[in-house]
Structure formats: C-alpha cells, structure tokens
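Give me structure tokens for this 640-residue protein.
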Amino acid sequence: MKTFSKIILISCLFLLLLTFSLTGYASENVSHGYHDFQALSSALKQIASQNTNITKLISIGKTLKGKEIWLLRISGSNSPSPLEKQALLICGNLEGDHVIGSEVALGIAEYFVSQYGKDDKVTKVLDKRTFYIIPRLNPDGAEFFFAKIRQEHAGNLKPRDEDYDWLMDEDGPEDLNGDGKITLMRVKDKDGNWYIDEKDARLMKKKKDDTPLDKLYKIYPEGIDDDEDELYNEDGAGGFNTNRNFPHNFGYNPKGVGVYPASEKETQAVIDFMTRYVPELKTQPHKNICGVLLFSKFDNLAAESGINCGTPSFPQPQRVDQSAGEGRMFFSFGRRGQNQAQTTRPTDPQPKKINKKDEYIFKSVSKKYKEISGIKSAHSEKPAGSMLEWAYFQFGVPSFSANLWSLRKDEQKSPRAKIESDASSKPASSQAKTMDRSTVMRQFMSGSRPSSASQDQSSDTDEKWLKWVDKENGGTGFVTWTKFDHKQLGEVEIGGFEPYIQINPPAEKIPELIKSHAKFALYLAAQFAEIKMDEPEIKKLSSNLFELKIKIHNKGDFPYATAMGERTNNINSIMVKLKFEDDKKMKLFGGSKRIDIQTLRPGAEKDLKWTIISPEGKKINITLWARTGGGKVKKTVVLR
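Here you go.
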C-alpha cells in the first residue's frame, strides 16, 4: 500500500512539473529555459571547441564582479581571413533585465555553426562575412533574473549613491510577503493618484477629478524604508544601465559621482573592441564592422525606422523647502556646496536624427525585418546614450535594434508604468514626494523617461497585459493583491505583475525568435557594400603615351559609407593605388598614383583615368582597397 502511495505521489509530481513546462511562465521558475552566466559560458565554450575551424571565443573585458564579457567570432573557413571580411556585430542583453536578447544572440550562433556546410545560404554568407556576437554585454545585471528573490534590474552592479545621501546601496527592496518576487505595494492615501478599477480589482486606474478621496491609493515598490529617510527602496543594488552609458546624446548635466559617458566597464569593453588600434597589426582590426544589430528595449525595426534620439535626463535631487518659522526648519536634498542657481544648458551640437540620405537604408531594412520576423510592431521609447545611437552617429555604420518582447499591434504604450506610477503629478506629502523621486531614480537606471502620454495610458497598458496573462499565459504572471501589515505604512496590499514578465517572453517562444532573427541577421549581413573593379583598359595615345581607365562599382545594397559615416570620417575611404614597374622611366602626366573615394551609393560607379608617360611593355600594379566593401583586389596591366 505504501509503495502504491509513493507511485501515486511521484506521478502527481511528474504531471505537475510537466504542466509547468508546457505553460508560459512557471510561477516559481521564471528563468526556466534561460541561461545564467555559468550555463551561457559553457554553451559558448562548447560551440567554440566543437567548431574550431569557423569560430573563436574571446573575452573583451570583465565586469566589476569579475564575469567575462564573451564575444564569439564566426566566419566561414573559405575565402579571406575573418578580419578581412566585412562584419556584422550582434549584441544582446545590454540592459540587465533584457535577458531574452542574450538567448536569441546565443541561438543565432548555434544556428550558424550547425548549418554551416549544410545550408547553402548560411554557408555562402559565412564564407563572405564575419559575425561578432556578444550575447550578454551586462552579465552582472542579468544574474538578478536567476536570483532566488526576483527583482527587475536594468543596470550593472557598480555601487551608486542613487539618493545623494553619501551612502551606497543602503535602501533596496525587500520581499515582504516571502513569495520570491519584488512587486508593488498599494496603500490608501487621500493624496494618491490611483484608484482600484471597479471591473477588475487587480487593475489600478489613474485618478479622475471626481474620484472620492477615500478611494485613492499610492503605489510603492515592495519593501521598507531601511535608512528612514522617507524614501522607499530608492538606493538598492547599485548599477548603471549600460544602454544609457554610450557617448552620444548622453546629456550635459549628469548627476552623481562617476556618472559620465562610457564610465562603465561593459561600455568601455565594447567600444574598445570596435575601435582599438593594435600596433602588431598596424591597424584597427575591427573596423571591418559594417553594421550593428542589437537586441534591447529600443526598437527601430518594427516600431519605426530610423533613429530619433530622445532627450537625455538625469535624476534630480528633490528639494523640500519649508519656511523657517516657529517649529520649522529649512532643508534640501542635495550635496553640500551644490550650486542651486539655474544655469543655461549649452546647445547640443550632436545630431539627433538620421541623415536624410540614409533614410532609405532604415526604411528598407525595417520593411524586410517585418517580413522575415513576422513582427509588425513593437514598443520603443526614444533612446538616449544608447549603443544604437553611438554605433550610427559616431561609429558611422547602419545600426538596428529589436525589442523582442512587447505589446504588439495597437498595444504600444509603455508597460513600465507599474513602477512609474506617481511621477505624473505633484504630490502633496513628503511620502508622495518620495515616491516621485524614487520613480525618477528607477527610470534613469532603466534608461526610460516618463511622459505624460505613457502615464495617462498606463492603466490601459496594464489591462492589455492582464488579458495576455489570462488568455495566453494560463493566468500566470500576476500576483493577486494581498493585505500585509507594513511596519511603516500600516496596512498595505502587495501584488502586481511578476518581475520580468513584460520584458522576457516564455521559454517556448525563444526558438521561433531565434530562427526568424538568424534569418534576418543573414539578410542584413548580405546587404553590405560590394566594391568591384572592372578589367582595366589601356589605350595607346602615342609611342610613349598611354591612357589607363578603371571603373569602380558598388554592387551591394548598402552604400560604402553612410552619409553619417562620411560626416564622422570614421569609415576608411575606398583607395585605388598604382605602382609602376620602373619609377625612373614611368611618369604620370598630372594627377596622383593614389585616389581616395569616400563613398559609393548602391549601384553607383566611378570612372578613373590616368595619362602615363612610359616606354611600351612596362607593367602597372593596380590595388583596390575597400575596407568595408569587400577588401583588397589586385590587378596587373601591361602598357601596349
């Protein structure tokens, strides 16, 4: 009988586990199907060790916690060396909480190596191109996804004084109800900005002018005020969002110690990889990068084409002024000696929109992305200090970013309003001011900026996410509001969306995303400029006078250099160089032996002509070098 009972128990446990694996998110295991740092490292090492002929795994840097920032190079074994081929850089998981980016980037690598030599298209592209794949640029921040107590964390783990009180990481969230998730607290307060939806008590609606005061609530992140400064969870585990740390559109009025462009190890690592000069090679070896594909929270593929920069913002220390009357005092949040006077911001000389000459690139790629991926729309805020901006506006190549998991079709309002709750109005109490300030801190660290439009629509967004939870995810993904006796706020209710559910999809959706984005990566790499040279033509003008003609073409679908690349001067020009067999007897009749061409648009051609004084029968070696257009081509002609 006992044996039979054990069998029944084991069977029930098996069915329970099976049920979890078949539903979207297993409530107690949101990281199911994703790779933590150790698993990711093992997978990359296995790919490299089993495919030594076409891969190389390197570390481009280490995080503050000592984790390697892995880069996997993949290039076919035929044709030129990987450094001579045009390259596409793929980078994922720039924000710590956007772990889906690393899964898709890793999956693309696995797809390429498994199909090389089997699939004609994969083989053809890899033999002509190099792929640099950084699956996880922010490995420290990503580990929060796999922690026992789950909380969304977009930054890395560099300690920061986020509330400007000269202390670091002293007031983080707490799992008060012990469910392993950091969600929200709602508490009744006549100064609040939210009320409970009458149709669905899980939803919080933005208050109206006629909302009764006794129906109003404030919303806070789950936890207590550890440092008793009336700020709730405003200074938790430190960190800076890597995808807010690049030196374009960073902003001119940063707040806090150590806040400056490329201040973070992760940002420095990828910039150094892309731009570093190697004395042994006498070149910048990775200037062969012709395009960048990112998997991040920004999107310029399904959301809209092009790059429209946002307005960079920084968390502003909240001033609390009280008249110095009887029983009152004046104080302000801010650093000692801080100049509170208003200053005029300098005019920003950095471009904020793509050059009009480049618009067709982004539009055509966006159209193809929607066709290949099947993703017709995506949510995206305007970037500031992002890699998307830096790669195009300063490195000078076409850059694209896909937000792999967001509300689709008409459901494009920001889902992040669950933490951005009280930022839209001026609170009347110090606690409300606290929430407003905490909100700004969180938005800054996550790289987002509040807008009145997104806040007004936040309840509608939550309603649409709830519909997805109920209909598509088996009801899993929302923590029911439950009463809790808070030692500082009194009676509160804890609940809300589970961490990460609006950022990373259920594991069963990953293979489909990998397959479609691997195909898109192949398409994108195949678009690069193809600079070709026709057979040189020699025309004899007289006994010792000859005319040499050369025609250069761009047979690719991208320009050799974007209009922005021309502006930055970061793209090596196309070079055509002549070398005479006998410099003493052979002379140019005007002109130069070297001609540089800054760019060629798709389908464009350039005619080059030289007049040469030389005895008949002498040789001329012609070299065409297009670093980001197909490499080096050499030809030899004889003057006849």
